[in-house]
């Protein structure tokens, strides 16, 4: 397969001992996260080695979206979450630990955190949601 790196976890998608696959398409795989944040937490991973979401082609983005929809339906059926958090740690400064693009699809459940307001905003220190001010 072109564009793979031997030492990359996500370039070894064929290894069933490393990856539990939920759904797949010609260019992507949706695998269960090895360290899930919640029941049903999966990652959408391109088969080719690419580090940044911004390096995907328009066709790949469309394919990824369609596959994510398929994954969501399967997760809904099995785990019945109330909502989802979708995230990409695009770069080491953003927290990426595997240098191969992976898009997290994290099922969310009522009461899984005390106050979910702000969602992704809670990854950086900042004011409580009730203290947010509009951009000036």
- Name of the CATH homologous superfamily: HIT-like
> How would you characterize the largest beta sheet?
5 strands, antiparallel
Q: Enumerate the strands of the largest sheet in spatial order, edge to edge or round the barrel.
A: 1-2-3-5-4
> How big a fraction of the residues is strand?
15-25%
Low-confidence stretches: none
The number of domains is 1
Question: What is the C-alpha radius of gyration, as a whole number of Å?
Answer: 16 Å
| Series of H and E elements | EEEHEE
The overall pLDDT, averaged over residues, is: 90
> Structural class, from secondary structure content?
alpha+beta
Proportion in helices = 10-25%
Overall number of strands: 5
**CATH class term:** Alpha Beta
Number of helices: 1
Distance between the termini: 49 Å
CATH topology: HIT family, subunit A
For the record, the CATH architecture stands as 2-Layer Sandwich
Name the shape in a single word: globular
Descriptive report:
The chain has 136 residues and is an alpha+beta fold. The protein has a single domain (9-131), classed as HIT family, subunit A. Helix content is 16%, strand content 18%. The chain has one helix and five strands. It has one helix spanning 58-79; strands spanning 21-24, 28-32, 42-46, 83-87, 103-108. Strands 1-2-3-5-4 form a five-stranded antiparallel sheet, covered by helices on one side.
């Amino acid at each position: 397969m072109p564009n793979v790196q031997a030492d990359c976890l996500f370039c070894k998608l064929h290894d069933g001992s490393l990856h539990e696959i939920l759904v797949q398409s010609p260019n992507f795989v949706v695998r269960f996260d090895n360290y899930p944040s919640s029941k049903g937490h999966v990652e959408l991973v391109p088969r080719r080695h690419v580090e940044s979401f911004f390096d995907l082609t328009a066709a790949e983005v469309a394919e990824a979206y369609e596959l994510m929809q398929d994954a969501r339906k399967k997760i809904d059926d099995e785990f019945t979450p109330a909502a989802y958090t979708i995230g990409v740690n695009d770069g080491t400064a953003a927290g990426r630990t595997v240098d191969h693009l992976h898009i997290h699809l994290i099922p969310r459940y009522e009461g899984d955190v005390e106050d979910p307001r702000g969602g992704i905003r809670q990854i950086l220190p900042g004011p409580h949601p009730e203290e947010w001010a509009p951009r000036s």
